Structures
1.
Amino acid sequence: MRFTDKVAVVTGANSGIGRATAVRLLAEGATVYAADLRHTEPWPESGAGQLHTVELDVADPNAPERLADRLREEAGGVDVLANVAGVLHIAPFLEVQRGDWDRVLAVNLTGVFFLSQAVARIMVERGTEGRIVNVSSVHAVVSEPNAAPYTATKGGLEAMTRTLASELAPHGITVNCVRPGATRTGMSAPIYTPQIVRSLQAKIPLGKIAPPEWVASAICYLASDEACYTTGASLDVDGGYAMDGSLPGTAYS
């Protein structure tokens, strides 16, 4: 019950890591504003917290202020923002179009910036020692061929996180990243062919692809008071993928 009497916003909440995060926060007592383009999946009826669904496109320039107005009116403030919404465009670098690039940046980076700004303003107004948690990717530090716009946004997100953490620290607001590795979500499902799954299982030291709930646990830790002395950090939740330099199936003798 770490989030009793807390108000949390989760983007990308209709599925995957966003859905798992919202469900976990609800179970631990939060009032959750679950935001997504649309809500197509039923929500669990049980939970200690209260659920409010929000139809929101994080790429819409007007969305942050609309959400901020609703939070001020209905909740009186906000304690947690989990920026989970994201999009992935697969194409060779030489074939990426301007529209593809613009859409990925609008959702994965620009939208995160301005939604964080709108929520942080409420935190500062209310004197709330809030928590902002961004969802990066192992591919912020490890290349992912055919996903240049995506990797650019995740690298930028981590750099931005550190700067926001520095600026908001005087207000007692922490800003951190979770850096997931291979995770089974609606976004990853089309590219996780049997061959890709076998390769990932061979590459990942712990040998598993994560369900969204494992990543949600890390997000909720950084969103809780247990992480009150952590800011500007990126927490790997990748089964050891990024740190491992071994050669699968071989060893030096």
Note: The CA atoms of residues 121 and 143 lie 35 Å apart.
2.
Amino acid sequence: MTASQDEAALWWATAVSHIEPGSIELRDRPVQELIGTTGLVDVIWLLLRGDLPTPRQSALLEAALVAGVDHGPQAPSIAAARMAATCGVGLNNAVATGVNLLGDSHGGAGQQCVEMLDDIRARHDAGAHWPDAAREVTADWQSRSRYLPGFGHRFHPVDPRRDPLLDLVHEAVADGVVKGEFLQAALAVEELLRLRRAGARPVPMNIDGATAVIYAELGFPAPLARGLFVLSRSVGVLAHAWEETGQGRRNKGPIPRSIMPARLPASEDI
């Protein structure tokens, strides 16, 4: 190998994979040893973390990924993917269109929730009781935004994904799989909101909060909470884009043509 080839090899050196003629290694494990023996969730963990999860860790991660796969065409990422699929751009472009909409407002709450739970745990570690730590941190968050990431849902009074996910976390804590600190932090926020909103519509934990608890308990840093959500939701994006390609529409817009107004209102009319 020449000096320039050595320099290029070092430029692209990575611990994630090692490829040579006739050899593919993922985190130093030959791919042929993983094929047929290791599930996709375990391989996701392996590539991100460098080792394989225990069966219980894998089950928790899989539950979180399953819970986030889809939320119907009212979700902007799904709607955009379906519209893109009718524009002649190809399935991969339709999926990319949907995934590219997963930003701070739509898709980022899991990452933000992990960051908030990290702050609460840090204050607890510094000596604050869970309710006090939750009160201090949520006050700081709400000084910057009216929303607390991971709590409340515009569509569901109670997110149906909350309880089964948190039940799994409770079981994992009882069995020593995870410590439960992030679970305690999230429950403290939920209780604080319940007390604040006595008599009003409750603001329980949603899918972003419940999966944030799981990702944080499993040791994933906050940015990967969003990355893992993107992996999860891309399954639903793909399914919707594929279904749309079979429905024969061209240039699908946000509303049916039959109810489009003859003239769209000007901005001063709105």
Note: The chain has a mean pLDDT of 91.
3.
Amino acid sequence: MTTSIGTRPQLAHLTAQIDDLKQRGTFFKLRVLEDEQAPVCTYDGRRVINLASNNYLGLCNHPKLREAAIAATVKYGVGSGAVRTIAGTMRIHMELEEKIAAFKNVEACVVFQSGFTANAGTVSSILGKEDFILSDELNHASIIDGARLSRAKIKVFRHKDVEHAEELLKEIENEPGRKLIITDGVFSMDGDIGPVDKLAVLAEKYGAIMMVDDAHASGVLGRNGRGSVDHFGVHGKVDVQVGTLSKAIASLGGYVCGSRDLIDYLYHRARPFLFSTSHPPSVAATCIAAFDLLESEPERIERLWANTWYFKEQLTSAGFDVGGVTTPKSETPITPIILGDGRKTMDFSKALFEAGVMATGIAFPTVPEGKARVRTIMTSEHTRAEIDQALETITVVAKRTGVLS
């Protein structure tokens, strides 16, 4: 029998950093889901109202998605067996890409293994060291990593500050190289909407490439969840649209939409696409079924927004800081409860869990120091009774722990 081996001296610096996290009160352990991803579910043996999931439209356990996954597994097997460019492109992968392209009203689409690789792989492949990237300061980590990998010169503009973005563009207007403006459609930590329309106008004015990451806008904003480009009515003015298949679409992966030439180029140069095995056919089938549901069950999005506005109003009335003073104001189903202090935030999140509400504490480095928050996410499938129960629990625990006076 072998015995487990502890941390060797070569990795002692990791232990020291973990100890530091524990002293700060921001160390955490993964909570384990024991049943379906649902509005009320079981984590670590405790039944809780779930306010932490990205399952915006409740599709994670929809019967039509289950049926599609099972049928595809029976027909095609459990795996594709190769990367897309060698032997792993199945007809069902092409059907998914065609489905998304038609949904987003663009020429073509390519699916990646995750939203993270879609962003990082695209930015790093379409630009080089002679080029410039203008990025919102609160853009997602995958955008930041892609920008670094591209070796392009990075200019960061203040959050949603279009005038600052233009100032930076003017500074480099006569520099050689391409310019890329990139923003989140919905910012994942604050839940505010990026100024995609105004930045698209700016990109047009200066001949820059316009790119948007719609991970949290897909299935949430726009007609039938078509995203921020549709929300603002700027079809044809955004060159690169990135989305995810793992949030409202309830499965796994990411995608990039745009011109046929853009997608053909990514087929040849995007390293995550070139060097990762393609999705199991069950995943592709699940995603196709989800896009069908976006068209056939628009009432899900209507319920999502009704629940969202009710929840925000009640939190605000109770006296919680949900953004708008020291942080951006949430405009979407993502609603942060801002506490500021990391330890206080993690303690509040733990107390909520013990009282029956799952709401994740988020602290540095995911958000800046002093901006720690408990992030809540509403879904279409939360009932009014569940929302009211969650609100009551949040308020009672907040008063008991000193979060509210």
Note: The mean pLDDT is 95.
